[in-house]
């Protein structure tokens, strides 16, 4: 594979090892390995962080690698975002995985092909490996376009990351961007609170700011028609993913077939966005109605396959 990969890890050596070994299996052009420092008030982390860093011994001599091991702890917001900035100071494009985002092997050539295809297409902000529909909706195309940006295994370009701000997002600009993006006030307020909370440090994360950066630049993302990433980090030692019973925990992996079937038209899938809306803004009535729609579409697709071997309709 001609694409470099970045692995971002911290204090969970078992997860980091599993994801690193999958990276090695994909044989990237180079591995970048970023590990944050242990927290001062948690001295027991020192040994775990050292275990994670020692995983470099598993990287074969045939794959070059660089490390970024922090002496201090920067947290999720600065630790992750600064690692990505470091990565793109050295590479024009690449794949990014956090230690708990375990990919199907086909995720790597999927990203590689699309990184090349959309290299100079400034409307595309990133390529995601996530599909949260659990195979209930089937597409003939290998991927679809979305206005949302899921980062459990993803790829992008330096040209897209440039200008990203983890902090300092101004209230007026934030509200202006969101007001153009959403019609309903509940959507505007929800995203305003998320992005402002992350930017101000009330919430220790970096990804809401990445979504805002792409919206500000009027970009969309690419998502696969099957799920290529399983988040294996839903457990008690997680930072944000601690609910082991979450419907997004440990999702089944699927492989994407090659050659890829590229969409003929660049349009957003309305039904997919309704699904995302329901999950971003939970409401029991909305979820009930949407699940009924999903079940109907699943039945319809199964019936088509039974009758004439059709692999599914476009929705």
Automatic annotation (TrEMBL):
Highest taxon of the lineage: Bacteria
InterPro entries xref list: Nucleotide-diphossugar_trans
Name the UniProt record assigns to this protein: Nucleotide-diphospho-sugar transferase
UniProt organism field: Leptospira limi
